């Protein structure tokens, strides 16, 4: 009964709202676009490009598991209000169809990783073996391309602020380019015999390719079943054969699987590595630049 009554009221209200907005458009500068990002890495990139005070929102927040995030009520509000949606693509966000269905007509949705044209590497094991691995952002050279794609999308969506986006992006791109060189030099201190990274999710393929590591995980993608007996047995066998200096756990998933492999093999455990999310306040991995530096510091400290 109540719902029906409010439904009848809506048509009377809409023209008034439209008139009010129309008048405001003449009196004030164009409103800033609402930029919605799928996870915290893209949120950071968007804030760097759009600058202080921009309306940047995130669906899977810091610390959340992005692959299998379940949209919460606030996400639907953000998606309905979005002018631009930035998501990674290559099936990182298994929930993307639901998010896209909620977007307003005319909103721009950008699969950032896919738009980079950066060469993909195949997932190496598990249910999704052979599909393009989505974790391209872990290579700072791919992150450069992410920022270029996002800058161009924002310029297209909001040409009035083009100069701001271009200037902010240029400054940040210089930092990302310097970061790659900095990490390469720092990680170069790790001896060849210790350059095997074993984690829960084998999400460091691009990172390993960028910095000269071998990489193994217990499972291939967080989108599949985690920690099955078969996965544990395979990696225990591998760890016994290869004898890595340490096993690493990641911030967005339980360390219990890595711990059980460590218990079984007597290998030390280190972590967390930040991959699918920035770190929470106080972790020292609260931005993409800090995330990369925190990971590199941990690897050098553990493996050198
Ligand atoms: Zn992942």
Automatic annotation (TrEMBL):
<feature type="signal peptide">
    <location>
        <begin position="1"/>
        <end position="27"/>
    </location>
</feature>
<dbReference type="GO" id="GO:0030313">
    <property type="term" value="C:cell envelope"/>
</dbReference>
<comment type="similarity">
    <text>Belongs to the bacterial solute-binding protein 9 family.</text>
</comment>
<protein>
    <submittedName>
        <fullName>Periplasmic solute binding protein</fullName>
    </submittedName>
</protein>
<dbReference type="InterPro" id="IPR050492">
    <property type="entry name" value="Bact_metal-bind_prot9"/>
</dbReference>
<dbReference type="Pfam" id="PF01297">
    <property type="entry name" value="ZnuA"/>
</dbReference>
<keyword id="KW-0479">Metal-binding</keyword>
<dbReference type="InterPro" id="IPR006127">
    <property type="entry name" value="ZnuA-like"/>
</dbReference>
<keyword id="KW-0732">Signal</keyword>
<dbReference type="GO" id="GO:0030001">
    <property type="term" value="P:metal ion transport"/>
</dbReference>
<dbReference type="InterPro" id="IPR006129">
    <property type="entry name" value="AdhesinB"/>
</dbReference>
<dbReference type="GO" id="GO:0007155">
    <property type="term" value="P:cell adhesion"/>
</dbReference>
<keyword id="KW-0813">Transport</keyword>
<dbReference type="GO" id="GO:0046872">
    <property type="term" value="F:metal ion binding"/>
</dbReference>
<dbReference type="InterPro" id="IPR006128">
    <property type="entry name" value="Lipoprotein_PsaA-like"/>
</dbReference>
